């Protein structure tokens, strides 16, 4: 993590520097003695985190944040002698607020918050790249498909090379280069196929799964782990032990608790993306 230290007091900067030197993943990119100098260095160096004093001559810490609006905004850890600014610090979404004289344990706890916040932001960015890759695959021509296939290390799916080939049945492992294009549903004494491209998301319920297609849900007797093997991993992702989602239906992702995310579909459906499956989704396309 690249860190900039901003404080008009030399001893205060030295204290923060000593504490940061105990963190193995930290690169101190510079120190600023004033708010104006801090603005210039933030724009030039683009640090991940700024340890920022509130009260400085000329331009205070909040003034620094106002000046860098519209450009890359780093995480901010306020380090100051005055606690009356605490609420205002959180209003501007500071990572934390540490009082002087800086206690080592308190600073390390605040820095750990910044480390976790950065890790979550990086993961969200990588997931965004994944979604963009999948959308290009769905919307583009052969070149986009070939590029995505090379990236994922997978052959083209959805029925294989022969248009007349029968799709693999749900529950049977898909052969290399072939994924289910339809799923057989038995319901109310009749049988019919549901196209996999029409499925918004899939929900597990013990030995059954529900295929959510628009406002309709079809229940079939199948384990979600078996069904997952038949679906094209460039278009479908397991985001939770009980949930598979069609990535083309994903509208946005929002950070939640403990490293989890909320996945929001085009129709407003909100699904949980767990940390365990987040890593698996990234690996599917080599992001």
Key features of this structure:
2 domains, 8 helices, alpha/beta, single chain, 5-stranded antiparallel sheet, 15 strands, 287 residues, OB fold (Dihydrolipoamide Acetyltransferase, E2P), elongated, 5-stranded parallel sheet, Rossmann fold
Walkthrough of the structure:
It is built from eight helices and 15 strands. The longest helix has 36 residues. It folds into two domains: 101 residues, Response regulator (Rossmann fold), CATH 3.40.50.2300; 131 residues, LytTr DNA-binding domain (OB fold (Dihydrolipoamide Acetyltransferase, E2P), Beta Barrel). Helix 2 crosses helix 3 and helix 5 packs across helix 6. The two termini are 20 Å apart. A hairpin with a 2-residue loop joins strand 11 and strand 12. With 287 residues, the chain is of the alpha/beta class. The strands form four sheets. A five-stranded parallel β-sheet has the order 2-1-3-4-5, sandwiched between helices. A five-stranded antiparallel β-sheet has the order 10-9-8-12-11. The protein is elongated, with a radius of gyration of 25 Å.
